[in-house]
Amino acid sequence: MRPTPEQTASRREPAARPRSLPSRYLPSARRSLGHVRRMSQFFRELCTMTRSGLTVAAASRELLRHSPRQLRAMAGQMLEAAESGDSISFVMDRNRDFFYAWHIGLVQAAESGGFLSDAFEQIAHAYEVEWETRSALRLRLFIYVFFGLPAILLVLPVVRFLQQPIPDIDSWTTGYVVRGLLNQFYASSLPVAIGVVAAVVMWQVLGATAWFQGVQQRLVLRLPIVGGLMRSHALDRYLGTLGLMLRGGTPLGEAAEHAAFAAGHAVLTPQLLSIAGGLREGVPLSQVLGGLGLLDADALGLAAAGEASGELPDMLTQAAGYYRRESEAKRRMLLRAAGIAVGVIWLGLAGALFIGGYLAYFDFLFRAGDKLWMEG
To answer: Which of 12, 117, 310, 321 qualifies as a cystine partner to 50, CB 3.0-4.6 A?
Structure first.
């Protein structure tokens, strides 16, 4: 459903703007698995209720009653916006760090094209995939992080202590050993532990900001396999949104602009936006997309066939499904590879620590024997 002139005017009225979400909901919490699961349930329920015929205002009112405490502020803002004739995407844009960029673009396109329930379903599905992926990675890392890392931090001071010069025999007491181990712990293990904790907290805090997400996207796109996975996700959203908007009767140039924002990628979105002018001048979609070099030959062939047959929305939906299946296959492959890589890295660290401890122990025995022999 297209927005009415009154709704468009209300978006431009500063007085109608909702407040930002409470600052007590820290960015680090927004990246937690608990938050991802809550958001998946929130949008899944929102999708189900709107598809059943409830208005966004009625669905938001219901979510305000029973949604988790952390998300009630967002449900309240959606209710306020829906009742005042404002858009849901405007609420999301006011709280940009709370969402991924493509969430906002997709909802804006959905409000323009009249498929808001489908947009909620896509967001819910993306959160479900994120939760599944991160849960699998956390399970693989649990043994190494919660058992391997403390073991390394405890063994490292012992190895460092054994490498110290041998004191006089009279000085070799229990107190001397304890003080030496504590000094090595404070000098080596404690800084490592503080650095690890600080890096994790900093990653979570930065990862919740729109700026850092853009930096991540630019860097990840350059990586093999992982970059292809991110590219497939963005093209899936772009083609799927474009097909839905064309099916709803939106002109091609306007639909392409909205779909580009729904792609939500710091690198790909500007490139996809650049083709809107050519589309408004009548250049075929398959031709301008081919000039970008982002889509493969199969997807471009589907777009060309859709233009020739008059079934462009269906062909774009099929192309989006192709990229969705491709990204799912790459995601599962990366999960398996990540499990193997983490195991190899930790085995290497444990092996290096074991060899270092072994050599330090026998070196200490030889030096202690020489010390005893010389003093005896």
So the answer is: 117
Q: Is the CB of residue 221 less than 8 Å from the CB of residue 230? A: yes
CA–CA gap between residue 116 and residue 108 (Å, rounded)? 9
What sign has the CA pseudo-torsion 176, 181, 183, 184?
A: positive
Give the distance from CA 290 to its chain's centroid: 29
Q: How many other CB atoms are there within 10 angstroms of residue 373's CB atom?
A: 8
Encoding tokens for residue 141? Answer: 């890392």
State how far the Cα of 108 lies from the Cα of 219, in Å rounded to an integer.
Answer: 27
The SS3 assignment for 259 reads helix
Amino acid at 228: G
d(Cα 63, Cα 70) in Å, to the nearest integer? 12
Nearest CA to 101 out of 274, 269, 313, 276 is that of 269
- How big is the chain by its Cα radius of gyration, in Å? 28
Q: CB–CB of 230/217 below 8 Å?
A: yes
Q: What is the C-alpha to C-alpha distance for residues 253 and 269, in angstroms, rounded to an integer?
A: 15
| E-strand stretches of the chain | none
**Which tokens belong to 114?**
């009249």
Distance between CA atoms of 186 and 191, rounded to whole angstroms?
7
Smallest CA-to-CA distance from 239 within 336, 319, 352, 294 is with 319
What is the distance between the alpha carbons of residues 129 and 341, in angstroms, rounded to a whole number?
A: 21
pLDDT number for residue 266: 84
> What are the tokens at 259?
């779909």
What is the DSSP code (8-state) at residue 55?
A: -
- Residue found by looking up tokens 């007491």 in the block: 173
Rounded CA separation 351/357 (Å): 10
Split the chain (376 residues) into runs of 10 and give each run's mean pLDDT. 39 36 37 82 93 92 87 88 88 78 84 87 90 82 78 85 78 82 89 89 75 81 86 90 86 89 86 90 91 90 92 92 89 84 83 84 80 68
pLDDT of residue 58: 93
